[in-house]
Amino acid sequence: MNEFRRSKELFVRSQDCLVGGVNSPARSYSPFPIFMEDSEGSKIYDVDGNEFIDYSLAFGPQIFGHRHPRIKQAVERQLERGWAFGTSTEKEVELAELVSKHYSSIDKVRVVNTGTEATMSALRLARGYTGRDKIVKFEGGFHGAHDSVLVQAGSGASTHGAPDSPGVPRELAEKTIVLPWNDKEKLKSVFEEIGGEIACVIAEPVFGNAGCIPPKDGFLELIRDLTSDYGSLFVLDEVITGFRVSMGGAQELFGLEPDLTTLGKVAGGGYPIGIFGGKQEIMKHLSPEGDVYQAGTFSGNPVTTAASIEAIKLLKEDNIIDKANRKGEKIRSKLNKAVKGLPVNVEGISSMFSIFLCSEEINDYGDLEKCDFEAYTKFHREMAKNGVYLPPSQYELCFISYVHSDREIEDTVDIASDVLEKVL
Ligand SMILES: Cc1ncc(COP(=O)(O)O)c(C=O)c1O
Ligand SMILES: NCC(=O)CCC(=O)O
């Protein structure tokens, strides 16, 4: 049974110098976070020398497994030549070409450092392009930690009970209209009422920050139709799904054509990245071609772009997405079988899944209230004691990589069913 003595000591130290002892609230959990220091493939290792099969995978990017040798080598090659020039580089061009090759809705991109920056900039561009201020998002949707989207936000904001963050000016929050996910009638009536004032609808194609909740039939298509009819933009936030559910993201899988797309996570091969892009007609409004301002010292930096290019090539050459999808199907079906009779519901698509501690199906953010959050905290800790690292909240997704072995999946299922019997 794993023990976490050194993590506990470090948490005492970190609380004196980091807010809540962490650098992101999503990493703060009871009784104290486990401090990691090493990784290889499907495994991560903590400061006490414990080994874990990892299903958090850095909150998503590591579909390749940790420390993939090809990504490591690409970064090392770049380190030999420099890691920050603040100038144009050939790699940026290569990366932009690769992204638009895989995303038919994208002619041009801008590369930034995080998903947060990507959605923040995409919303500014949508507002600048349409000359309108209002945006629509969905309850429990998470698009990063910036003002316009910290309204009824999922992920850590919900975990820590602050889906509407203080500090966001009321005047700005009022410009964000929040609707229930998968509710076609509400969406239609908002457009009928004020469609001409809406700059854009931003949506995760598959909910990933209020657990994994796929779209109901026709919901994304309805967003597409209404935004087109009313001259608003459809911003598809593929920070989680991009380069994960298929090379061309959820838009390829579902046959959608958004106006703007945001990417992150897997797209950086584990290095910090955000990308947003769309058709030239819209992108040309971004500075320096247009007036909508956006900039950044580290945007498109050479190390991240080297990692990203290698990652995208690797995804294709090693057929990583199909392999990870099959592992996803396997773990979901085995877990569901193993927990029959318990109030547990394993849902998901592709290489992502949620272990909801409740017996009913989860269709929207409100349904998460039916889940047992206290039991999840115990479940998370007991799993870690038994060598399995899960995301620390039911709001976050479990991810599986293409290098998780069948043996590891079987061990995980056995451990999870024993632990769940105990904690429920
Ligand atoms: C759908 C979605 N959009 C945007 C973000 C923000 O990305 P980042 O954490 O890289 O800023 C996240 C992060 O979890 C996300 O899940
Ligand atoms: N789904 C939310 C995140 O991935 C955020 C991770 C973090 O802030 O550490």
UniProtKB/TrEMBL annotation:
Catalytic activity annotation: (S)-4-amino-5-oxopentanoate = 5-aminolevulinate
GO CC, any one term: cytoplasm
Cofactor: pyridoxal 5'-phosphate
GO biological process, one term: protoporphyrinogen IX biosynthetic process
Keywords for the protein's UniProt record, in alphabetical order: Aminotransferase, Cytoplasm, Isomerase, Porphyrin biosynthesis, Pyridoxal phosphate, Transferase
EC number: 5.4.3.8
PROSITE patterns: AA_TRANSFER_CLASS_3 (PS00600)
InterPro entries: 4pyrrol_synth_GluAld_NH2Trfase, Aminotrans_3, Aminotrans_3_PPA_site, PyrdxlP-dep_Trfase, PyrdxlP-dep_Trfase_major, PyrdxlP-dep_Trfase_small
Protein name: Glutamate-1-semialdehyde 2,1-aminomutase
Organism listed in the record: Methanonatronarchaeum thermophilum
Biological classification of the source: Archaea, Methanobacteriati, Methanobacteriota, Methanonatronarchaeia, Methanonatronarchaeales
